[in-house]
Amino acid sequence: MVRHRALTLLLVAAVVVPAQASDAYRIGMSVAITGPAAGIYAPAFDAYKVYFKRINDAGGINGHPVEIMFEDDRGEPSRAAANAKKFSEGVILIVNASISPTYKPLMTEADAEKIPLLFGGGVCPREAFPPAHPLIFCSTSFGAQWDSRFAVPFIKAHAGSKAKVGFVAQNIPVSQAEMEFAEKLAREQGLETLPVIVVPGGSADFTPFAAKLKDAGADWVLSWAPWPLEIGVFEALGRIGWTGRYVTYAHQPAQDDLARLKSPNLFAFGGNAMFTEGLPIHKEIEGAVKGQTSHPPHYLVEGWVSAMVLEQALRKCGWPCSKDKLAQTLATVSVDTRGLRGGPIEWTAENHYRQRAYYKVYRWDTGQRAVVPVGGWTKLDVK
Q: So what's the pLDDT on residue 22?
């Protein structure tokens, strides 16, 4: 109860309200600040708070402050729908940082009111891929099918064509569809595959699912799901004596768990450079968020990149900036991610995901006793 009250007060205090709202760029943001998914999505809320406080303290954009209307959806579709209704009047953009069940109500309202919708934390929806919906944009590093287009060739390159590959998904449509796509892709590339293992969300014991993979003879396992499930199945495999290699998408906690588990057989791939590399942009973020959030700085990267995109779009849109003009402007952005990603985020009228997707793999290096990259960035052209 105390924690809930504290979060509520934080939410109220976090809303940036300029002296004259009519002179502000007004943005709505529906985010899972509380609820089961908060550990993954609430950091985007913190990133936006810190980022646009800095912008406003420095005089705003084009001489105007940015007002972010934060609303907690707890990852629930009904709350997301209510948030969308609140945003329908007066905002020129809606930002989503929540789980996939919240997507439909936000998309429906955005389409009805012709408000651009930016996905800045959750998995990129297919509507952002070519040919893109004119109002749907996505800055998030991970995207369905493109991630598997990187992961499967990576496994083949390191395992050879004789490897037997298993796949792990959570029982949500986006995860299941991605692993089914990956299994098909692996077969097409000559790998021996096992049927996708689907794990119910909230499972307390991953051992039965791990046992299926081990008993079936999996040499490699690919998982694309929420992080607790990804890492939970890997740890269960270790407890039952499996010695194969495990590849998983690097959500925010990946950096911490790679260091905690110290397993050279665990590979985490993703679109963001881990803070273990100590880049100048990492140091900048660490300094900016110090004392401003309870989350580790590397948890804020998805929100930070999203805020970078929005800042550039607003600057380019000028003043006044209507929702129609902003949608047109977003379709022309090219954002230098300053090393947070392998390259810029570039959108066109037909592609609101990115023209090139970049991936890097990390693992624990026993000799260096550190989390290190496995090679450099790999680029995929998105068409």
A: 59
